[in-house]
Amino acid sequence: KIARLDALCVQARILPVVTVRQAAHILPLADALAAGGLRTLEITLRSEHGLAAIRTLRRERPQLCAGVGTVLDARMLAEAEAAGAQFVVSPGCTAELLQAGLESPLPLLPGASSASDLMLGHSLGYRRFKLFPAEVCGGVAALKAFFAPFPGIRFCPTGGIRPGNLREYMAQPNVMCVGGSWMLDGEAMARGDWASIERLAAEAVALLD
Ligand code: 3PG
Hints:
The protein has 209 residues and is an alpha/beta fold. It has a single domain, classed as TIM Barrel (Alpha-Beta Barrel), CATH 3.20.20.70. The chain has ten helices and nine strands. Helix 2 packs parallel to helix 10. The chain is globular. Bound molecules: 3-phosphoglyceric acid. 3-phosphoglyceric acid binds next to strand 9. It catalyses: 2-dehydro-3-deoxy-6-phospho-D-gluconate = D-glyceraldehyde 3-phosphate + pyruvate. This is 2-dehydro-3-deoxy-phosphogluconate aldolase. Pathway: Carbohydrate acid metabolism; 2-dehydro-3-deoxy-D-gluconate degradation; D-glyceraldehyde 3-phosphate and pyruvate from 2-dehydro-3-deoxy-D-gluconate: step 2/2.
């Protein structure tokens, strides 16, 4: 599963963290992100549309890679799996969730914000983590500090990533991709302005070259 996470994250480079506010948004939103170059999506369970959005994407846009985010416990992991998610992301780690992740066929990217979180995950075999909330828990300085004691661990920093700091994060040797919601402008989504979402996605991708 580490290899699957690596393949997924390295290919994605930027993982949009999508909270679906209206069920009808999911396909135009996913299409706009894909047109902008972002084809791997984390759909959060922060709205009631999250699981239905995953089912819709798996059925209608099988060429995209769709995972579930904001998974807090084993029950939510099971729901994500049943909906057809291809990967699962959590904001933090508990022993219960990490254990459920080991038993699930899906790769789990657990959230970590401290050396203790990393040690807990590491003890169970996890080597890939979402650094969350990245900017709040130390940002690039934290990544540099974690590199010495945890050389085999790689991160998807998320939380506070913006066009202005994206490159600095991506330049860290222990970063495999970054996540964030900055390209999902709330006002643009509310008025169905998918061209703006596509432009923001394309601008983010352009920063990587
Ligand atoms: C997440 O849960 O991953 C965050 O909401 C994403 O953080 P951002 O909104 O600061 O990009």
